[in-house]
Every structure is written in C-alpha cells, then in structure tokens.
Amino acid sequence: MSGPGAGFEYPSQEVSWLKRDVLLFANSIGCTADELQFLYACLDKCHQRYLLTRPGTPSFFPDFSNIPCNTPYDNCHAHDSRDQLTNLPAFKHTDQEVIDFYARSAATPIPNVPKFDSRRVVDGQRSMKFLKPLPPTSVGKKFELRSKVLGVYDKGKVGTVIETETVLAEKGGDVYTKAVGSAFFVGQGNWGGPKGPSTVNYPPPEGKKSDAVHTLQTAKESAHLYRLNGDYNPLHATPEPGQEMGFGGAIMHGLFSWNSACHGLLQTLGGSDPANLREFEARFAAPVKPGDKLVTEAWRTGEVKDGWEEVRFITRVEGGKIVLSNGRALMHCTITKSKL
After folding, report:
1. Pairing of strands 338-339, 293-305
2. What distance in Å separates the CA atoms of residue 295 and residue 288, rounded to the nearest whole number?
3. SS3 per residue for 237-263
C-alpha cells in the first residue's frame, strides 16, 4: 500500500445483531419459503429438532456479514456493502433505531486526501471471504469491525475511488469475514491523486451456455425493505438525490443486487447451504431501479483448488444492461444444472 491515505486505520467499531436482523436480511434479498434455514427463527425446542433433520439447517445467509461491515464510503467511519454480516452494521453499529445516514457518514477524515461528499457516492466493487460461520445473534459476545484504507484513487473528472479492507471479528478472538470494497465518489476527482492499479477481470466463458440462471423480480418498495437492514442512504428512498446524480430518481442499493446474486448462486448451485460458499465478488456496473427484474447467469469453470470450484457470473436487468460484472465465487457446487 502506498499513496495518500493508504494504510490509514479507522477506529474499531463495535457491532451487534439479533436473530430478527438475520431474518429481515434473508427476507430482503429474496430467500424463499423452501429455505426455512434462512427465514425461520426456531426458538421452540420441538421445532428445532424438526429443523435439524433438514439439510443445512438451522442457519443464516452468509452475506449477512455484509450488514455489519459496510466499507467506509468516504473519509469517514461509515460502512456500506457491504453483502453481505460484513455489509450493514457499520451504518447500524449497535443501533436498533433508524439513523441519519449523512450524519453518520461525516466523521474520522482520511489524512492527506480531500473531504468527499457522501451524498454523491455509489458502490464500486466488493469481494468477501467467509472464514468462519457467524452465530445467529451476537448476544453474549462482543464483535467489532476493523477497517483500513488500501488506497484512494483519483479517476479524473468522473470521480474518486476509495478502497477499504474490513474484517468482522470477535473482540480478542477469531476473524469471521474479510471484505474488500470500493466506494465511487461521483464527479469528485481531479485532485492530483494516484490513478490506482488496474483490476483483475473475471469474464464469463465465451460461447458457453450458463450452468445456472436465477431471476428475481424487485418491487417499487424493495429498496424500502432492504434499507431496514441499516443502510438508510436517502438515495434509495426518495427521488431527489438520484435526480441530482443523474439516475432519474431513487435506485436500489448496490448491495441489494450483490447480496441477491450471491443468494441466487447459493440457491441454484450450492443447495442453499452456506457451507458451500467460500468467496464472492462482483463489480457494480450500473444502477438498478425499483421494479426491475434481475437475471443472474452463472458458469462453472471446472477449476478446483483445495476443493473449491471457481464460478463466474453476471447479473443484468431482464432484456437490458449488465448491473453486476466481473462476478466470481468459490463454491462447493452440489447441483449441475439449475434454472429458477
């Protein structure tokens, strides 16, 4: 790491979650009624014994770690996507109440770089490694997010990229997830900073039919449900911010598309078992409007290392633009062909 801001470490942030947070997250990204391991809080011992007879249960969706650990969006200690426990409690922290997104995104400046406007920021790219299963509630334990800046890159007139690494860990103990994410500050470049390195690309194989297809119909209210996970950015709730940024109105959270695509891969190729997902990443290529239908296509590469197969994927709006590109996952694939 080198350049302005690189290596800067944010103050660690305590985060917490309840079982209801896990259930809300699963509902908000499209988990279905046949995936009770994600949607049903089995508090009754009789029902627990029943669920333990079902494959992969009880459990919760692995990207929930995208909820407590969103990457700092600007020179502040706030987190987004990210995914998704490592994707939302950085906004949420330990709160159960709605928070002021802009106010929470305005502390702890990154040294030696300009102060960027968090009202004009969108997701860039995100990768996540799932190292250890999270408990369904943090009650009885102390968890924290530890974040550091990997680089701040000046992309000229179009904007600035801040790349951050965030780990979700038990205080004094194990690391559960590690995420690397980038935030793109629209129209906030040309300050003389480094351009940054080129990124690795993971295109889908040419001329090969996808091995799995997952579709998800969003509703006009989908962003309003997803924001209850803790990301209360007005960009996803009211039209004015999106109109000012040239999107024509409110848009879906980038992490909604990211997390729902992750769910699609796990459901179609991994038997809806969180143990079958090791890594997941994608680039945010275009915004999604509430009401759009998302189609995720996935290709098995056959390349296996240490038991994990590389899967490539893209997500597009049905009949239109690609919204997630550079998609890659490491999985234990249990299903050879699937279409939902």
Report:
1. unpaired
2. 12
3. CCHHHHHHCCCCCCCCCHHHHHHHHHH
Q: Which two tokens stand for residue 306?
A: 């240490």
Question: Tens-digit pLDDT profile for the chain (340 aa)?
Answer: 679 999 999 999 999 998 888 899 999 999 999 998 888 865 444 444 333 334 444 455 665 555 444 433 333 322 332 333 445 555 566 767 777 777 777 657 899 999 998 888 888 999 999 999 888 889 999 999 999 999 999 999 999 999 999 999 999 999 999 999 999 999 999 999 999 998 899 999 999 999 999 999 999 999 999 999 988 999 999 999 999 999 999 999 999 999 999 999 999 999 999 999 999 999 999 999 999 999 999 999 999 999 999 999 999 999 999 999 999 999 999 975 555 5
How far apart are the C-alpha atoms of 74 and 4, rounded to whole Å?
14
Residues 6+ apart with CB under 8 A from 167: 69, 86, 145, 146, 147, 175, 176, 177, 178, 179
- What is the distance between the alpha carbons of residues 181 and 259, in angstroms, rounded to a whole number? 14
The residue whose two tokens read 């049903």 is 40
- 37 touches 58 (CB < 8 A): yes
Q: Which helix (H) or strand (E) holds 46?
A: helix 45-51
User: Two tokens at 168?
Assistant: 């979700």
- Cα separation, 135 vs 29, in Å, equals 19
Q: Cis peptide before 290, with omega less than 30 degrees from 0?
A: no
Element containing residue 225 per DSSP (H, E): helix 222-226
In three-state secondary structure terms, 65 is helix
